[in-house]
Structure formats: C-alpha cells, structure tokens
C-alpha cells in the first residue's frame, strides 16, 4: 500500500506558546504533519529548557542545555529565536501570521494586543487564521486577568479534593496528580478544537478565535465525578485507590506486593469470587449487583482484603486473567516501558539528527494511522536552530536581512 501524506501536511502553525499546555498541543499538530514554527525569546527560549535536571547527555556523558521537560513536548518543530516585543520582531510575526493557518499563544489575556499581535489585529491581515489562545481562566470572567498554573488549577478545579487517601486514614489529605494533567488535557482539548476549526474553515473559508482555558479543561476532565455531584448534591471525596461508583475496583495487597483488580460487571465479580476461593461472596444477596456492592462496600472490602493478602501477586494476576477479570501489577515507569506490550508497540523511540549528534529518546505518539502514520521527522530543536531557514524559506528574506535580524533582533531597520 502506498503511504499517504501526513494528515496536516501543508498546514503551517505559528507557535507562540511555552511551558506545556501550548507546546503539547503544537507537538500533536507537528506529529500530524504540520510545519510548526516555535517562536522563542533570544538567549533564553522556552522556560522549560532550564527545567532540570535531568538534561540530555552528550557523547561524553555530560549535561547539555536540553532538559527532559523541554524534550518531552517539542519534537517535529522548528525553532525561531525572535524578540516579539520589538517593532521588528512583531513585524516578522505579522508576516508569519499572514503565511500561517494556525497561531497558538498562551500569553496573559490582552498581552499581545500592545504588539498588534492579538486576534482582532491579525484577522485583518489573514481572515483565514485560526487563533488559539490558551490561558489559565479564559478570555472573560472575574479571573480572566489572573495567571494560571497546573498545580494551582488542580487545587481550584476540584481534582485534589478527590485524589489521595481518604481523610480518615493515614496519609489522607490533598494530593496532586503525578503529572501535569491539567496542562496535558488542556493541550489535548486545544488540539481537538484546532482540528475542528480547520475542518469548519473548509466550509466557511474563515478562521476564528479559540478560547481554551486550563480551568475549563480541568473541570471538564473530571467527567463522571462532576455528574456524581450533579445527581447526588454531594461533592465526591477522596477514596484512595478505590472507585466511587464500582466495587471491587481498587488496589489490593497480596502477600508479596500489590495488584489492581478492576471488576467491571456482575459476571466478572462472580468469577473473581470463585478465583479467590470465596464463591459464596459472589451469590451473597448483599453483594449480588454493583449497586448493592457500592452500598455495602464497608462490609465487603474487608473480607476481600483479608483473602487477597494470603496469595502471591503474580499468582492472583495469572488466575484472574485466565477468567477474564481485569487486573494488573503496579509498575514504575521503567517497568512500564519494559512491558512486552510497550516493546511490541514501540512506545520508546530514538530520534536521530540532533545538532549535538546524540540520540534523543522520545515517547511515541499514541495516534496510529493505517494510511498516513505519524512521522518522527526532527528531534526537539535547539534554541533558534531554524531561524535563518524560516526567514529565508517562509518570508523570502535575503541573506543580508537575515544576518541583520539575527544580530539585532529588535533593530527598527529590520522592518520591511
């Protein structure tokens, strides 16, 4: 079968974002084939370049200037070092916006207006531009002017009230997620919105302004927990590793470790009870249905806990898998990447072609296409690596103009 071109080949994205939510979005678009131009401050670049250790190692084992955090969200992009706060820099951005399909930014609300780089200004010169603003709280509302960060949004948005051990148990209390889930989900929602806007533009011929907020995205991703609140009138509370709506669906301690048992229906529950040698619990009138098991959780779980701790973890997993009961170990990240399924799917990849001549380890995109697969074209760029290339290829600048602009990024003479 002839491989087709990537889905977004021919689409240009002007990336004025930094940290994680915006770069996560633009990395998705880059993986899908878009030409993503990452605009960075000369000298410092994206803040996350310095968020380490760990840093990428050179051939001699020494640290480079490329942090793991930065590398995780910036592959398949080109880096343009430019000071957009200067007249010359802002002028270059306007030129690039005219030649782009999408612009992604995560400045404070109104922060780009003083440079003439806000949506209303740029749509005058490019009505087809899809302009995606990612902020903490959105473009309106009483908190619109405030900055937003993943950790604080996890607290404000409710996640930390349902994450962690129960308050009445040792270790109970507020707990953030182990990864910046608000940023990642916001980046994913922004990706979906941009793809939808590109599709809509095929009908209308017009771009639009996308208003994507960390707070909105965070609340939305709470999913069924929100509806639990809507229907009960009671905010859900921390339940540790148990499920609010399904029982048994939690971590159990075996004699030599821990495993997850995720019983999803009544048939699986009865199979689970037979495996653990307690078929009577499968037919007990108190526990016959999930509704009853949730209501009688405090009676059932201690019985199961006592039984599960008498067996070996891997023996439980083998027996439960044999009868179709979802279960599994709790791996660390290294064990997850060493898992046979991760190896078979190629979840860790090595990208060649870095200017430092080192291999860059990356996590594979989970987006799999049969006809136009994700291509890993270039590793995360070094700061300003493609400045001359972009100015020449996209804007047609002469070598003299490029040299002057790179030497004096804020000089007024650089304005065409």
Strand content: 5-15%
What gap, in angstroms, lies between the N and C termini? 47 Å
What is the CATH class designation of the largest domain? Alpha Beta
Uncertain spans, ≥5 residues at pLDDT below 50?
410-416
Structural features:
6-stranded parallel sheet, 416 residues, 2 domains, Rossmann fold, 38% helix, alpha/beta, 15% strand, formyl-coa transferase, domain 3, 3-stranded antiparallel sheet, 18 helices
Short description:
This protein has 416 residues and is α/β, with parallel strands linked by helices. 38% of the residues lie in helices and 15% in strands. The strands form 4 sheets. Strands 5-2-1-6-7-8 form a 6-stranded parallel sheet, sandwiched between helices. A 3-stranded antiparallel sheet has the order 9-10-11, covered by helices on one side. The chain has a two-stranded antiparallel sheet with strand order 3-4.
Textual characterization of the structure:
By secondary structure, the protein is of the alpha/beta class. Helices cover 38% and strands 15% of the residues. It has two domains: 12-221 and 346-414, Rossmann fold, CATH 3.40.50.10540; 249-333, formyl-coa transferase, domain 3. Strands 5-2-1-6-7-8 form a six-stranded parallel beta sheet, sandwiched between helices. The protein has a three-stranded antiparallel beta sheet with strand order 9-10-11, with helices on one face. β3 (55-57) and β4 (63-67) form a beta hairpin. Residues 410-416 have low confidence and may be disordered. One of its GO terms (molecular function) is CoA-transferase activity. Pfam families: CoA_transf_3. This is CoA transferase.
């Amino acid at each position: 079968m002839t491989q087709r071109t990537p889905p977004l080949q021919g689409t240009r994205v002007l990336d004025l974002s930094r940290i994680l939510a915006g770069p996560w979005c633009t990395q998705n678009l880059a993986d899908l084939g878009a030409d993503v131009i990452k605009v960075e401050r000369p000298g410092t670049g994206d803040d996350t370049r310095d968020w380490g250790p760990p840093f990428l190692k050179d051939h001699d084992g020494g640290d480079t200037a490329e942090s793991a955090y930065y590398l995780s969200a910036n592959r398949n992009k080109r880096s343009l070092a430019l000071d957009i706060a200067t007249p010359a820099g802002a002028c270059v951005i306007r030129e690039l916006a005219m030649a782009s399909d999408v612009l992604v930014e995560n400045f404070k609300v109104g922060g780009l207006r003083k440079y003439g780089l806000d949506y209303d200004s740029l749509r005058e010169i490019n009505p087809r531009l899809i302009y995606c603003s990612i902020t903490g709280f959105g473009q309106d509302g009483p908190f619109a002017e405030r900055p937003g960060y993943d950790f604080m949004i996890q607290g404000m948005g409710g996640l930390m009230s349902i994450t962690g051990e129960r308050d009445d148990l040792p270790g109970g209390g507020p707990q953030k997620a182990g990864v910046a889930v608000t940023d990642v989900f916001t980046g994913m929602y922004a990706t979906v919105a941009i793809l939808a806007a590109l599709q809509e533009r095929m009908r209308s011929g017009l771009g639009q302004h996308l208003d994507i907020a960390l707070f909105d995205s965070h609340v939305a991703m709470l999913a069924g927990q929100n509806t639990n609140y809507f229907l009960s009138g009671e905010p859900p509370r921390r339940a540790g590793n148990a499920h609010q709506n399904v029982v048994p669906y939690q971590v159990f301690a075996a004699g030599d470790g821990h495993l997850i048992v995720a019983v999803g229906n009544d048939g699986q529950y009865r199979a689970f009870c037979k495996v653990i040698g307690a078929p009577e619990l499968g037919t007990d009138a108190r526990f016959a249905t999930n509704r009853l098991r949730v209501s009688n959780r405090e009676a059932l779980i201690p019985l199961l806990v006592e039984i599960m701790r008498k067996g070996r973890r891997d023996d439980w997993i083998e027996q439960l898998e044999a009868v179709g009961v979802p279960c599994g170990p709790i791996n660390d990240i290294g064990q997850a990447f060493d898992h046979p399924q991760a190896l078979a799917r190629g979840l860790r990849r090595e990208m060649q072609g870095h200017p430092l001549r080192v291999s860059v380890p990356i996590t594979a995109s989970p987006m799999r296409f049969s006809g136009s697969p994700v291509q890993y074209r270039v590793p995360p760029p070094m700061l300003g690596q493609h400045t001359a290339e972009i100015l020449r290829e996209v804007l047609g600048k002469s070598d003299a103009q490029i040299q002057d602009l790179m030497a004096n990024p804020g000089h007024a003479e650089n304005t065409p």
